[in-house]
Design brief:
By secondary structure, the protein is of the alpha/beta class. It is built from 7 helices and 10 strands. Strands 1, 4, 7, 8, 9 and 10 form a 6-stranded parallel sheet that branches. A two-stranded antiparallel ribbon has the order 2-3. Strands 5-6 form a two-stranded antiparallel sheet.
């Protein structure tokens, strides 16, 4: 009986050691990846939060970049969206219906990064069309892509699947959806949610 107990104890200890070693190696692997946080965000009049000087998605993007040591890149259209909320909604709707690809300012070499977080507000159950402009400029083969969005009730909708299709060849992980009101008015809660979500990617 004692021999059996000793064997079980040794096996248990080995299992714990291997589990811990695996967790450490996975965390190490994530920490040594080159990370990009690319995001689209809009200021001006926003639903439920009034007129804002820093966009909802921008706030979450900064939190992710801080936790991952990632480089921030803002996807900005050459022609800004209207400052007034309802006018912006109508432009976004027309762009989606027409599958527009608005010109964007600048670019970043996505191909130099291992992990790319892509952030956006949920507009009409989709990403803003400017995000597609950005995605379609690049080769996503072998990249790890992680979406995140801000919303006021729609969550991610089907944007994870849309990103899988658009970022052909990438591994797309489960995304994060945070309400814009939380990003603006409850930032500690938003930060905790974001950190907990990020932790799941290193497990």
């Amino acid at each position: 009986m004692k021999k059996i107990q000793i064997v079980l104890t040794v096996l248990c200890a080995c299992g714990i050691f291997l589990f811990a070693q695996n967790a450490v190696s996975q965390n190490y692997a994530m920490k040594n990846k080159k990370v990009l946080v690319a995001y689209f965000s809009r200021t001006g009049e926003n639903y439920n939060v009034g007129k804002i000087s820093k966009g909802n998605t921008h706030i979450i993007a900064e939190m992710i970049a801080e936790e991952t040591d990632g480089k921030l890149f803002q996807i900005e259209p050459v022609n800004p969206y209207p400052d007034e909320y309802n006018a912006c909604v109508e432009v976004a709707k027309t762009e989606k219906e027409n599958k527009s690809r608005p010109a964007i300012k600048g670019d970043v070499v996505v191909e130099e990064y291992d992990v790319i977080y892509i952030g956006y507000p949920n507009w009409w159950g989709d990403m803003p069309m400017s995000v597609y402009t950005f995605i379609e400029k690049h080769d996503w083969q072998g990249k790890t892509v992680i979406p995140f969005c801000t919303h006021e009730g729609s969550g991610l909708s089907d944007t994870e699947n849309k990103i899988k299709k658009a970022c052909n060849g990438a591994i797309v992980l489960n995304g994060l959806a945070i309400r814009g009101t939380t990003a603006q008015k409850s930032q500690e809660q938003a930060r905790k949610t974001t950190i907990d979500w990020l932790a799941n990617h290193s497990k």
